[in-house]
Write a structure and sequence with these properties.
Length: 366
Amino acid sequence: MRSAFGCATLGLLLLLVAGTFDAEPLYVTGSALLLLGAGAAAWISAGAWGASVHRELDTRSVVEEQPLSMRIEASAGRLPLPPGWIDEPLLPEPVRFSAGRRTARVRVEVTFGRRGRRMLPPPALVLRDPFGLAQRVVTGSEPDELLVLPRVLPVTATAGGEEGQTAHARASLTAAAETEIDGLRPHREGAPASRIHWPAFARGAGLMERKLISEADSRPLIVLDPRAPESPEALDAAVRAAASLVVHFAKRGGCGLLLPGDRRAHVIERDLLAWPQAHVRLALVEEHAGPALMAAQNRRGLIAFVAARTVDRVPRGLGRTPGGCLLVIPGSLPNRRAVIEVAGCRGYVGARTGSAALLATVGGAA
C-alpha cells in the first residue's frame, strides 16, 4: 500500500500548496492524486477482506514421473475480487484473472523426478489495482506435505546359461531341504500329504499344513545399502532398483526386503499386500545408515545386494549363501559382464554363483 499512500499524500500536499498560494490549477491535480491513491487503497483493502486461497491435492503420495493433479481456488469475501493473480510455487509463472469474480480456479498437473518427502509452500492470492499503486497478498493457511515414491521398472536379463543348467538350477532352488517347523497355514492344493497337521484337523480347525523355515528362507532377499552414494542420482537409482527387484520377485512367489535400521527383513508375498508399506519406507531411505547384514546371513535363497556406490564384491559372509548372491550397483565393473539391468543399475554375479542359477531365480526377466 506504500505507493497508494504516497500518491494520496502527494495529492494532499498539492492541495495545501494550491490553498496557500491560490494556485487554482493545482487543485485539479491534487484532487486527482488524492482520489486515485485513496481509492486504490480502499478498493484493494475491501476486496482482500475475507478473501481466501487454498490448494486441494488428489492424493498425498505419487510415484516419480507420475502426474499429480491439484486444484487451487481463490474465493472472494463480501465484495468481488479485484484484479490480480494466483501465485502457485509449482507453476513457472502466476495465473492472472480479471476483476469482478467471486471465485478463481486453477487446475494444475505436475510431476516430480525424485523420491522423498516434499513440503509444498502454500499458494498466494495477489490483489493489485491496474496502476500498481495498492497490493495485498493473501496466503494459504499452511503448506501441504507430499510423499514421492520411487518408480518400479522392469528387470531385464542380459546374459544366461544353457537350458539344461537353467532347469536344474530352478529345480534345486524350489526343492530346498525342509527340516524345521515354522508354524501352520491352510492346506494348499497339491501340497504333500506328509505336511498335513492331523491334530489340528482332529480339533476341527480344518486341513492345516506345516510351514517350514527353509521354505521362507529360500525366497530371494533384497538388501539395500544406501551409504556413501557417488551422487544423489546414484542413491535414487539404487532405491529404484531395489523397489523393482522387490516387485519382480514378489510376483513370482514372494521375497524379503532388508532396509537400513531394520533387524528383520520385510516379507512381501505374492499378493503384494505388504508392498505399499515397504514402498513408503523406500521413499524415505537416507544415506546415513546401512543394513544389518546379520539378518541376511544363513539364508538358502538368492541375496540381491543393492549398493548406492560402485563396489566390486558383496560384503563378507553374503557370498557364501547356497542360493548365491547378486551384486547390483549404479555403475559398471570393468572386465565383468552384467547379468541383469534394472532402473539404470547393473547386476553382477557374486562369488560362487553361476549365471544360469541366478537367471533361473530371476525367473526369465524380459
